[in-house]
From TrEMBL:
Membrane topology: Multi-pass membrane protein
Protein name per the record: G-protein coupled receptors family 1 profile domain-containing protein
InterPro entries recorded: GPCR_Rhodpsn, GPCR_Rhodpsn_7TM, TAAR
Gene3D superfamilies registered for this protein in UniProt: Rhodopsin 7-helix transmembrane proteins (1.20.1070.10)
Keywords: Cell membrane, G-protein coupled receptor, Membrane, Receptor, Transducer, Transmembrane, Transmembrane helix
GO cellular component: plasma membrane
Length: 402
C-alpha cells in the first residue's frame, strides 16, 4: 500500500523489492538500480511535501481556531466551511503521517521489519479515504445549503435549524469513517483483522472502481446543484438589469447588493469545488486506472515504476497544493473568516507583546483589534439598515396596492 494518496507507488515499491507484495505472482521484482533511484528521489521529495503539508496544517488551523473570535453564532454556511477546513486539516495531518510511516521509513531509512507497520499503513489509508469522502460530502452539503437559501429564503431558518446542522455535520464526519472501517473489515481473511492486515482486494479494480463511483456521484450532484443555482441567479440578474433604466431606488440598490453577495458566495464555493476536482479528482482517476489486477494500466508492467512514481508525485503535489491554498480562499473570499482571522492574530500579538513586557506594542494591538471590531460592527449595521429599508419599502408598496 502507498504512503501518498490512494495509489500503490510508495510502500508497494518496497514490498516488490523485497518480493513480498500483494501483487500477483507474475509481478517482477524491482531491480536494484530502480530501487536506488526511488530511494534518492524520496530522500528530497518527501521533505518538500512535508513543507507544503505543514503550510496546509498551519493555514487550516488558523481558519478553524478563528471561530473562537466570532462575535455572533456562525451562520450554517460558515459552520460548514469551518468543518470543511477541519477536514482539510485532518487530511493534511494524515498524509504527513502516511508519508513518514509508509514511504520515508521503509524506502529511505529501509526500516520495514516492524510488525505494526502493515496494520498502521492500512489504517492511515482508511482514514485518508474517509477524509476524502468527508470533504466530498461537505461540498454537497454546502451546495444544498446554498440551494435552500437562494430558492426558499423565507423557509430557510425553518429548514436549516441548528440541531439539524449539528447532526448533519456529525454524520459528514462519522459515516465515511464507519463505511471505510466496515469495508476494510468485512472480507474474510483480508483487511484489519487478517494476519499482518493483508489486503489484496485493495490492489484490484472492483474495489477501486467502487471508491471512484462513491466519490464521483456526490461531486456530480454538487456540480448539478450549482449549475441550477447559477442559471437561477443569471435569470435574476437579467430581470434586474432590465429594470435598471426604469427604477432607481433603495430597494433596487439593496436587491443588486444581495444578488452580488449571492454570486460571490457561489463563485467562492465553485472555486473550492474546482480545486477539489483538480486534486482529488485526478488522484482518483489515477487510482482507478493503475493497479495490479484488472485496471487499464498494470503497475510495473504496462506502466513502468518510474513513470508511475512521476505521475503519482504530480497528482499528490496538486492535492497538497489544494490543501494549502484553501485557507487563502477562505480568508480572501469570505468576509467573516477574514475579519475573525485578523481579530485572532491581533489578539495573539497583544498576548505575545504583553508577555514580553512591552509598554507600547500592546496599545497598537488593542487599537488594531478595536478597529477590526468597529469595521465588523459597521458592516453589520449597514446590512441591518439595508434590510430594514427593504422591508419598509415592501410594506409601503403593499399598502399602496391595497
Amino acid at each position: 500500500m502507498d504512503g501518498t494518496a490512494m495509489n500503490i507507488t510508495s510502500s508497494s515499491i518496497t514490498k516488490l523489492a523485497m518480493g513480498t507484495s500483494n501483487a500477483s505472482s507474475s509481478s517482477k521484482l524491482v531491480d536494484m538500480e530502480t530501487m536506488m533511484w526511488i530511494r534518492s528521489t524520496y530522500a528530497w521529495m518527501i521533505p518538500c511535501m512535508w513543507v507544503v503539508l505543514t503550510i496546509a496544517i498551519i493555514g487550516n488551523s488558523c481558519i478553524v481556531l478563528s471561530a473562537r473570535w466570532l462575535r455572533h453564532s456562525p451562520s450554517p454556511n460558515l459552520r460548514l466551511c469551518l468543518s470543511l477546513a477541519a477536514s482539510d486539516l485532518w487530511s493534511a495531518f494524515v498524509m504527513m503521517a502516511g508519508l513518514l510511516i509508509n514511504s520515508y521509513i521503509p524506502t529511505v531509512l529501509q526500516l520495514y521489519k516492524a510488525e505494526w507497520q502493515p496494520c498502521f499503513s492500512l489504517l492511515t489509508e482508511i482514514i485518508r479515504l474517509s477524509a476524502m469522502l468527508t470533504s466530498d460530502f461537505h461540498l454537497l452539503a454546502i451546495a444544498f445549503n446554498h440551494l435552500i437559501g437562494i430558492m426558499a429564503p423565507l423557509k430557510y431558518k425553518v429548514i436549516v435549524t441548528t440541531r439539524r446542522l449539528r447532526i448533519g455535520v456529525a454524520c459528514l464526519w462519522v459515516v465515511p469513517l464507519v463505511l471505510m472501517m466496515v469495508w476494510f473489515s468485512a472480507r474474510k481473511g483480508e483487511g484489519l483483522f487478517a494476519k499482518n492486515c493483508s489486503h489484496p482486494f485493495y490492489f484490484r479494480l472492483p474495489f477501486r472502481l467502487a471508491v471512484f463511483i462513491l466519490f464521483i456521484v456526490p461531486l456530480i450532484f454538487t456540480l448539478s446543484v450549482y449549475a441550477f443555482i447559477l442559471v437561477h441567479l443569471f435569470r435574476q440578474k437579467a430581470l434586474s438589469d432590465l429594470g435598471n433604466t426604469l427604477r432607481r431606488s433603495i430597494n433596487y440598490s439593496s436587491g443588486q447588493n444581495a444578488l452580488k453577495r449571492k454570486f460571490r458566495v457561489v463563485w467562492t464555493t465553485l472555486l473550492i469545488v474546482g480545486t477539489f476536482m483538480l486534486s482529488w479528482g485526478l488522484c482518483l482517476l489515477y487510482f482507478v486506472s493503475v493497479c495490479i489486477d484488472g485496471c487499464v494500466y498494470i503497475y510495473g508492467q504496462s506502466l513502468s515504476i518510474r513513470n508511475s512514481l512521476i505521475i503519482s508525485s504530480v497528482v499528490n503535489a496538486l492535492l497538497m497544493a489544494k490543501l494549502a491554498c484553501n485557507p487563502l480562499i477562505y480568508a480572501m473570499r469570505i468576509n467573516h473568516v477574514r475579519v475573525t482571522v485578523k481579530r485572532m492574530l491581533s489578539s495573539w500579538r497583544m498576548t505575545l507583546f504583553h508577555r514580553k513586557g512591552s509598554g507600547t506594542r500592546p496599545t497598537s494591538a488593542i487599537a488594531t483589534c478595536t478597529n477590526n471590531h468597529r469595521s465588523s460592527h459597521a458592516f453589520e449595521l449597514d446590512a441591518y439598515s439595508e434590510r430594514r429599508q427593504s422591508e419598509t419599502l415592501v410594506r409601503l408598496h403593499s399598502s399602496s396596492q391595497t
